[in-house]
Amino acid sequence: MGGFLFGYDSAVINGAVTGIQKHFGVGNGETAFVVAIALLGSAAGAVIAGRLADHLGRVRTMLLAAVLFAISGVGSMFPPNIEVLGFWRVVGGVAIGIASVIAPTYIAEVAPTAYRGRLASFQQLAIVLGITVSQLANWALNQAAGGESTNHLGGVQAWQWMLGVEAVPALVYGLMALAIPESPRYLIADGRDAQAREVLAEVEGPDVDLDARVAEIRAVLDTSHKPRAKDLFGGRFGLLPIVWVGIGASVFQQFVGINVIFYYSSFLWQSVGIDESNSLLISLSTSIINVIGTVVAMALVDRIGRKPLALAGSAGMAAALGVAAWAFSFRQGTGDAATLDDAHATVALVAAHVFVFCFAFSWGVVVWVLLGEMFPNHIRALALSVAASAQWIANWAITVSFPNLSDWNLSATYAIYAGFALLSIPFVAFCIRETKGRALEEMG
Question: Is the whole model's pTM more than 0.85, yes or no?
Answer without folding.
Answer: no
